[in-house]
Amino acid sequence: MKALSVLLSSALFLSILALQVSPQFWWGIGVLAAAAPLLWGGTLLFVLLSFLRPSWWMAAPVGALLLGMGVFFDTLSFPGQKAEEAPGLEVLSYNLSHFNRPRTYLWPKDSGKLEKVQELQRFMDWTAGHPAAIKCFQEFYTYPQDPYFDADARLRAGGWQHAHLWVDTLQVNKSVFGLAIYSKYPILASGVVFQGSTSFNKGIWADIATPEGDTLRVINVHLESAQLQRTRRSSGGKKETLRNMLWVFRESMLHRSEQADKVLAFARSSPHPVLICGDFNSTPYSYTYKQLDKDYQNAFRKKGSGFGFTLNHPKLFFYV
User: Fold this and answer.
1) pTM of the predicted model as reported, rounded to 2 decimal places
2) Mean pLDDT across the stretch 267-284?
3) Any stretches that span the bilayer, and where are they (predicted)?
């Protein structure tokens, strides 16, 4: 009992400490930090079971739990009291995942063959019709050769005529994909924050003139993706495959921490109020999240409720 108490308490304490240390120092710290919610839950279960045979050794895990309460509140958000809200600026941030477009799907040639074409159309309609004055998209996709699936033209025609895009062109059908900021209000200046190791991991910014006469700097980022799905099963067996996965995880984590530092340095130098949107590819139990959380308010923590899963798949869902 004593040994388990010390082990759990020490592991939880180290995982909480690891959240404040850059993986650039040692990448294994990121793995330890990611385990924080599991260690917190395991320690809580241990404390509850220990009440059957209470002892002074419970003080260590209880202290670790209290120290790690931030892990709990980073996982679950509770709605606050609803006060009368002042008029605000509605902003949408969304990773469109290329509108779930299959890689072999060429508009409009294959539209009659694709069973999910209606789902794609609803997705496009929702994106083009959402009333938010400012829209930040990651993995944005537009196909200029088809009026229905030309997302850029539809957004501009719908009132979001001011835009800043950083996109690449697919050679197969000349469609484009990347990062995009659309606004109903004038964009005074725009530029690039960073370029990642892939064509869709990057960061852009735009200074937007608000109706109140202020200037808001909007930063839209897509931090480095782990892309574990690209790790092919090695001929060397499961051990080699696991080694490859750890390598990909390590590299993406190091890139994200470096990119987050660049985003924060750029944001801190802004002469205007800053709003950071994007897909950070990081859980709340990461150095990347903690660094951003120090300087900026988390919209979900302030206004959301529940677990706030942003990655929603039938077999995989969590808060990224």
Assistant:
1) 0.81
2) 92
3) 28-49, 56-73
